[in-house]
Write a structure and sequence with these properties.
A 5-stranded parallel β-sheet has the order 2-1-3-4-5, sandwiched between helices. The chain is built from 9 helices and 5 strands. It has a single domain, classed as Flavodoxin domain (Rossmann fold, 3-Layer(aba) Sandwich), CATH 3.40.50.
Length: about 210
Amino acid sequence: MQRFKKIISVMVFLRYLMKFGGITIMGILAINGSSRENSNSDVMLTCLLKGIEHNEIKLKHYAIQPIWDQRHSQKIWRAADDDYDQLLTKLIASKTIIFATPIYWYGVSGLLKNFIDRWSESLATVPNFREIIKNKRIYVLIVGGDAPHIKGLPIIEQFNYICEFLNWQFVDYVIGKGNMPSDVLKDKFAMQKLQQLNTQLNGGINNEQ
């Protein structure tokens, strides 16, 4: 019964947000999928967002259960007792989202994949979820040590498809090379592009003021 009430409360809350706009739009949200402290993903986010007001979610600090797919079970969806709803609310409230992840086995980190997979739960349980979550600007930062500029491209393609499905604008991405902590600082091309995007983001914020 408690889990059922949780499902209903989330659905009602999200419908309220859509109808009445009862939440403050936060602007830029960084979602960090690294499990390391002082990771290369951290370095890339710091370079990109220098001097820019933003919020950050470090997924390693939250509990997000893997999806339990119940879409075809003909039963009420059994909600997980974790932090997913809290993080989803922050994502919904943000205009611009920056996903940062190391490349693990040629895909995104497990932390980030769990969060993304749970969107299928929201699609199944929240009425008009795609309408609620649409029209966001997306940036993707990825970093790895094994030819990431080639082997990381499937991740970029994955986000292209995600953005197409959710009616998001995939603005740009940066692929960095690095394995040991702070290695990505040696990738001059990645650092240069991060600085360029920092300037663009700063300009976009100023134009909205």
